[in-house]
Each structure stands twice: as C-alpha cells, then as structure tokens.
Design a protein that fits this description.
Shape: elongated
Length: about 550
C-alpha cells in the first residue's frame, strides 16, 4: 500500500479514531459487538428505539452486498443474533440489544447492528439491508436526544451507503488487528460516520428504480426494435413506404443516443414515477435529436455530429456531478445494486464510444483521435469515470480511428502499430493513475487481484464468465453480441442504398466501423460485456440505418 493510500485511509478513519481516543480515556480495553437482526428491514431497524439511539450516537446506512460481511467471534469481537421473530417482536429485540451493549465491561465499544431481509423486502426486489454503527463507552451509546447520523466509506463514495466488505475493514481498524479468516477477504474500506439524515429518501428512490427499470428498459428496447424494422422497410422498399415515414424512421434511428442519455439523466428527477420519467425521457429523446435537424440541410452526416457533441457534453457534466444520476438510471442496474458504486456504469460505455466517433468523423484525423482519447480518459481516470474497461475500450477506439483514417499514408503494418501504441499508452496511463490514486478504486482492487500475467489471464477469464452468466440470466443480452458482427458485415459489404451513403462519406463509414470494433473490445474488456457493448451496437446500427433516410442523403429522398 502506498503512502498516499495510507494517508487517505487515515483521513477516512479520523472521525472513528477521535471517538475511540475519547472513550479510551474512560476505561480500559476495546471490544466490538456485531449484532445481526435477521428479518428486520431497513425501516424496521430504525423503528427499534435502541437502534435509533445507536444511530444518534453514530449513524445509520444502507448495506449493499450483505453477503460479504465477515465476522470472527473471539475475545474482543462478539457476534450476537437477535431475531425479532424469535424474541417476540422489534421491541423485545431492542431490549435484548440494550442488554448486550450495557453488559460490556470494556471502556470502548464498537457496535455494528445489521438488519436483514424478509419475504416483503424480497417481493419488492429490495436487496439492501440496514446497518447502524456507533463507538464509545457502552453507557453513552443510547442517547435519547439528537439527530441521527449517516454512514459512508471509500468503497462507495456515497453518503448513506456502505458495503459488506467495509464491516470487516472497520472491525480491523478498531481492534487494531486482522484475525485469521480462511479464504480471501472481500474488498472493503473503514466505515465513516458523517453528518446528515439516514438515507430514507435514497432507499425509497432505490425501490422506485427497482419497480420501474425493467418496464422502462423493455419499452425502450421495443422502441429501438420497431424503429429498426421501419428503417429496414424504408430502405428495402422505398417505393412502397411514404417519404415522410422513411424520414421519420431515419430520425428515430438517430434518436437512440438521446434516448439512452435520457434514461441516465432521469436519475436526477426529484421523483421516479411513470408520470415524471416517461415525459422526461420522451422530451429528451425528441429534443436531443430534432434540435440538430437544421444540420441536415448542410449534410446528413452533420446530424450525428451534433448529437454526439450533446451526449459527450452531458457526460462531462455528469462526471462533474459525481455520477449522481447513475445511482438510479433507467437503463442498466442501479449503483446501489453493489457492483459499481461510483463512476461510469458499464451500460453507457458503448454510448460514449459511438457518440465520440459520431463527432470525430467531422474533424481532422488528429483532432478526432484526440477527442476520442480524451473521452477515454473521462471514462477511465479514477476521479472521473473510474471505469477501466470503458477507458481501455475508448483507447482502442482512438487507436482504431487513427490507424484506419491514416491507413493510406501509413500502410497496413504501421497503421496496426499506431493502433496498438495508442491503445497501450492510454490504457497504461489509466492503470498508472489508479495505482497512484490516494483513494482505492475498483481498478485498484483489480490491479491487486491481477498481479502478474497469470493473474491478468485468470481475471480476464473470470470477466468473460460473468458476461456469459449475464446472457444466461437474460437471453436478450445476446442481441448486441450477435448484432455487432452483423453490423460489421453490413458496413464492410453494404447493400444498396447503404453502400451509396458510405461511399459518399467515407469518414462516416469509418466511424461506424470503429464503433462496432470498439464495441467488441468493450465486450472483452468489461465483466458485464454484453451491457458494455449494447449501445455500441445500437449507435452503430442506428447510424447505419438512419443517415441514408435523412433529407439530402441521396436517392432515398426520392418518393
């Protein structure tokens, strides 16, 4: 561990350390008490008077990945289970909790209370449980007045949210030793008590997201599917499909980037209800596409440029807002589900690939390459997107773009060498930035787990396995996996009238080609590969079908 990381760990531990130091002056010894209350939901946990007291002395939070909690019963660390169902109810469980805490003779006690799930929480798809934590003299852990605090950790970077691995890290910090635990410990950082109310609103928002994400996502997929079919019909049978319908299908195909962006931006809405989400996403999709309709009079391929600029600009803003919309996006999983708590979600990697290349095709090669490379840093650097797979995928896109656009001047071998160099330099820079980062990230833990070539290979194989399991759970995830090679074939050997458009604007052809190839890299570079490649397929196919149907694209204008 570097000195920078040790310094960051010390800063995160300061609030807990001050509490420990204050209590140590009152008595001898430290002890940790972990209390499990299975069946007590997040709301029920705080409804227990004694748990509310502990939250006032410390804080209350949401616990993701509860299965990663590791405890080791011993002389200084006790583990107690107080099941409200067996004790007669929540009040009785609270009484038993007070008895356990006040019976401790140590001068300094760390109490961690863990809730659980119930049939009701499972039915509403609630995978989060409650956690309360405080430290101090046992007699001071049940104050009757004061505002409850909240919890966070460097693992989540989210106020009110910690993860299962953080419990072990907190116990180790408090007790000053690491007990023997068979097997590898889950990743975690010490839990920090912070000011602010417990995350009740965040929990309600999470539940709304769980209710709405599948229906909204299904509707978006259906929209994209119908749009694609209409576009194919318009291209295959131009004489039978009215010009107005063909053009509408073209605009709809090009609306996929705005639709995906709207599904992410919906995470900023004050409330997640169908009455707020559906109009918002519809407006973003329509305005985010048709706002660039005037560009079609100059050239149809300028429309994707405008759309791409809008998407990239939004993601720069989202990074400045600490990816707060990614807590509850309507495309892909919530960051509260426990896989990625901060940074760029994998589901939007393909969107950034396609959007950046939509813009690059209108720029000189070097400027276009620099743009895509800059978006790669946005996706991958630790204090920005913190997504290694996304950063590597976009670095590959930058390298592919430069090599492909300069292939005539460089020749095949040097073009391939340029692609490898750009990809390697960018990926190494992102890797090094995470290694030097004062805060541990997903990539930091990946670097530690993947030490050496053997570790890299095993980690890569494990990521492929995760992607296959995703397809097994959701067969619809197979669509972009099978769709990418089909779009690649259509770009390389386009039928008329696709061929006329691609020959007229070769830079647009190359942009679509690189989008598809970088999408394949995204599948290989991310653990949820189908999700990362999904929007690369969507933007590749949408751009391929959409531009030929716009006014000014060529013979498809003719009725």
């Amino acid at each position: 561990m570097t000195r920078a990381r040790l310094g960051a760990l010390a800063l995160l531990a300061l609030p807990l350390t001050f509490q420990v130091a204050a209590g140590a002056q009152e008595g001898g010894g430290r002890e940790a008490l972990v209390v499990r209350m299975p069946g007590a939901s997040f709301e029920e946990l705080f409804a227990i008077r004694e748990v509310a007291g502990i939250a006032r002395a410390g804080g209350l939070g949401l616990l993701a990945n509860a299965g990663d909690v590791v405890t080791v019963a011993g002389a200084d660390e006790r583990v107690v289970e107080l099941d409200p169902a067996l004790l007669g109810g929540l009040r009785e469980a609270g009484t038993a909790l007070r008895r356990e805490v006040t019976g401790v003779a140590s001068g300094e006690l760390l109490v961690i209370v863990l809730g659980g799930t119930s049939p009701e929480t499972v039915a509403r798809k609630d995978e989060l449980v409650g956690i309360a934590m405080a430290s101090g003299p046992p007699s001071a852990l049940f104050p009757s007045a004061g505002d409850p605090g909240s919890l966070t950790s460097a693992s989540t970077r989210r106020a009110g949210v910690v993860t299962g691995g953080d419990v072990r890290a907190t116990l180790n910090l408090f007790l000053g030793e690491v007990p023997y635990v068979a097997g590898e410990l889950p990743a975690g950082e010490p839990i920090e008590v912070i000011e602010g109310p417990p995350p009740f609103e965040l929990h309600d928002r999470y539940l709304a997201h769980r209710r709405m994400s599948v229906p909204i996502g299904t509707a978006a997929a259906a929209y994209a599917g119908v749009t694609g079919l209409l576009a194919v019909a318009g291209l295959a049978f131009p004489a039978r499909v009215p010009a107005s319908l063909r053009r509408a299908a073209g605009w709809a195909c090009l609306s996929i980037p705005a639709l995906a962006t709207g599904l992410l931006a919906a995470g900023h809405l004050p409330e997640l209800t169908y009455a707020t989400v559906v109009p918002f996403v519809a407006l973003v999709t329509a305005f985010g596409t048709m706002a660039f309709a005037p560009l079609a009079s100059r050239s149809p391929v300028l429309v994707p440029v405008g759309i791409g600029v809008g998407v990239v600009a939004y993601f720069v803003l989202e990074a400045a807002l600490a990816w707060s919309a990614a807590l509850t996006p309507l495309l892909g999983g919530s960051q509260l589900d426990g896989a990625r708590f901060y940074g760029l979600p994998n589901a939007f990697v393909g969107l950034l690939i396609g959007a950046s290349l939509y813009v690059a095709q209108a720029l000189p090669t070097r400027r276009g390459t620099a743009l895509v490379f800059g978006v790669a840093l946005l996706a991958g650097l630790p204090f920005l997107g913190a997504n290694l797979g996304g950063g590597v995928s976009l670095c590959a896109a930058a390298g592919l773009w430069f090599g492909l656009r300069e292939r005539a001047r460089l020749g095949p071998r040097r073009a391939v060498a340029a692609f490898v160099a750009v990809t390697a330099i960018g990926s190494a820079a992102i890797w090094l930035a995470h290694a030097l980062s004062p805060l541990r990230t997903h990539v930091t833990r990946f670097e530690e787990a993947a030490a050496g070539l053997g570790g890299l290979w095993s980690t890569f194989v494990d990521r492929l396995r995760v992607g296959l399991e995703l397809i097994e759970r959701n067969p619809a995830a197979l669509v972009p996996v099978l769709g990418l090679p089909i779009v690649l074939l259509l770009v390389l050997r386009p039928p008329d009238p696709l061929g006329a458009t691609l020959r007229r604007w070769p830079a647009w052809r190359d942009a679509l080609l690189v989008t598809v190839l970088a999408g394949a890299v995204a599948y290989l570079a991310n653990d949820s590969g189908p999700a990362a490649a999904g929007l690369a397929f969507g933007l590749g196919l949408g751009g391929l079908l959409g531009v030929p149907l716009l006014p000014g694209a060529g013979k498809m204008e003719v009725s």
